[in-house]
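Before going further, learn to read the protein records used in this course. The integers have meaning only within a learned vocabulary of local backbone shapes. To see the layout at work, look at the sequence and tokens printed below.
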Amino acid sequence: MKRLALLVCMGWLAGCDTPKPADPAVTELPVFEVLSAAATTYQSYPASLDGVIEVELRPQVSGTLDRVYVDEGEWVKAGSPLFKINEAPYRERLNNVLAALRAAEAARDNAQLEVDKLGPLVANRIVADIQLKTAESSREAAAARIEQAKAEVAAARIDLGYTLIHAPVSGYIGRLPRKRGNLVGPGDAAPMTTLSDVHEIHAYFSMGEDEFARFKARYPGATLAEKISHLPAAELVLPDDSFYEAKGKVELVNGEFDRNTAAITLRASFPNANGYLRAGNTGRVRLSEAHSDQLVVPQSATLELQDKVFVFRVGDSNKVSKQPINITEAAGTNYLVSGGLRAGDKIVYRGFEHLREGDIIQPKTIAQPVATLLHP
């Protein structure tokens, strides 16, 4: 009995010596005040590039390709000779129709002589009037043959001219699938080459119906052309994600939406005096939009759960609450906020991964961290 009492006493003393658990330390986290600021948002659209003029060069006459005066990728001036088709058959044809023309002219002269001879005889009633009318008819037929021969001469000259193919515009030569000695003709499936005038490049891109409607509502102007005139300069992002050196201008909108894609095509034009861009290139057209007095929150200060975006707002007594926010759009590494926050609210910047609703923190106030992140 005494031994049991001693054990109870020792247990009580031991309990008195055990320290009580200390309160968990309050976590210190960076906090900033949400302020309104100017921001620029960007929207990129896949684009295909074409020159101002894209010409497929096809032969107008058939024959053997005798000469190729240019090489692939070469820049040529309008009017420069490009190809020469064997002209011998066409020159021979021209000689034949010229001979036919001279024969027709001789026949007309003979018919005129006959008319001149029969005229006085008919007047003196020596020969019948029908003979004069027959001679005059022969003269008219000879004159018609002359006109026909002249038309054949003109056609032969045109065909002979087609044997030398010139550049219709200045530009760059494409591939040359036909080599010297090949037979070419108007019925060939593939062109002899293409010629691209790329002193200016057109970048074609598309907008969906919803986005196009927002675009029209965003910019002032009674007509679509007036709205387009308010668009900022367009940028061209190349396939390696670099930016083309010159900025362009959106100039044209297609007349209707594509029934299959529900998208409308726009065109941005970029100067290309040095020929850096070529037809067939691809890229992305990037358009910017300036915003003023917008609540801006870094994306790194947000948490996304079930298609909703949250921030941890710091309230009274430094208690945090998970606050859903409405995002207008992204501006670089930031969000433009249209609801859920007000200017002056304080939110946790980093280290909130393990915070729970109602936790108390030790705020460490920092400057608004979005000032240098607005323009990517």
In short: Residues 87-162 form a domain with the Helix Hairpins fold (CATH 1.10.287.470).
